[in-house]
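Annotated sample (chain length 359).
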Amino acid sequence: MKKECVNIFFVGFLLILIQTFLQYNSEFTSIMGEMFSSIKPFIYAVFIAVLVSPLVKIFENKIKMKRSLAIGLSLIVVFSAITGLFFIVIPNIISSVTDLVEKFPDMLRSLSSNTTHLIDYLKEKDMLFFNPKEIETNLTNFIRTNVGNFKNLAFGFGAGVLRSIMGVATFFIGVFISLYLMYSKEYFMNFLENIFKLFTTKEKALYGVNFVRRVNDIFLKYILGRIVTSAVVGLVVFIVLLIAKVPYALLSAVMVGVGNMIPYVGSIVAGTIATFLIILAAPLKVVYLFIAIAIGQTVDGFLIGPKIMQESVGMSSFWSIIAVMVCGSFFGPLGMFLGVPVFVVIKFIYIECLNRRSE
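Output written by the structure step:
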């Protein structure tokens, strides 16, 4: 009877959530966004703990350090590496963006001029199969519209950087919370087990704790796997573009690498932006960008990705895209990044329920 009541409660609660979402979509999304903002320090804390924990285990188990010293040294190593990378990459990106903003109107005019010359050449050779006036009108409208849009995009990028700086305080709160999570992880697991024991049997409480550990493993492997594969893809793209002397090589490589953090959708969006950028700066060299992205995606899809990501994901491309779209609509870029492991956990719960029902 008790089990049936619990099941009825959860089904009813789920139906209420679905009905609320369908009837009050904008309000529901707004409330979810506010809840997400309020728990952001805890999300940072979990993310940092997941990122640093493997290094802590190495220092603690292999080198036999005390946990407090292992945590401190791990944080120093990770943040030193990230800071060093930022000092190398960020100034170059800022320089590229500044240069791009200054040259963007001239690039568009050059593109318009080259297109006009191409149309004249095709007309002269009697190879023109479209209306040049219509193309010219559309191109002119595109230039007039997008010069302002690109400036707004640049200013929006600057505003985003400012918001990121303002969020540093929230991030450091997350760092301090992550220290407690890593230092007292046994306490938190025991506390969680006792919470489970209040509502269920000892056996089920232990199962719940093991489930939490399994979820932690899924997120850990996914996040670390995405970081490694995206870094490799970005590096491969940068090396190819650098060898081919393609302008804005670092900026394009960073965009492709960061975009690769979001499965499928991110790569397409980042590749499209990078393509548009290279077309404006050096149209003929866009071929090298395609080659670089193809090599990077081949390395990701056939060499690194299957070895690193297969165990942590194990989900079809269709459901991965659905996960990215659904979670992204609620939680933005972070939701798009973490949507896949969330759906993997849901899949894991579904399989566990089927197995328990068949027993």
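Annotation: The chain is about 90% helix and 0% strand.
Annotation: The mean pLDDT is 75.
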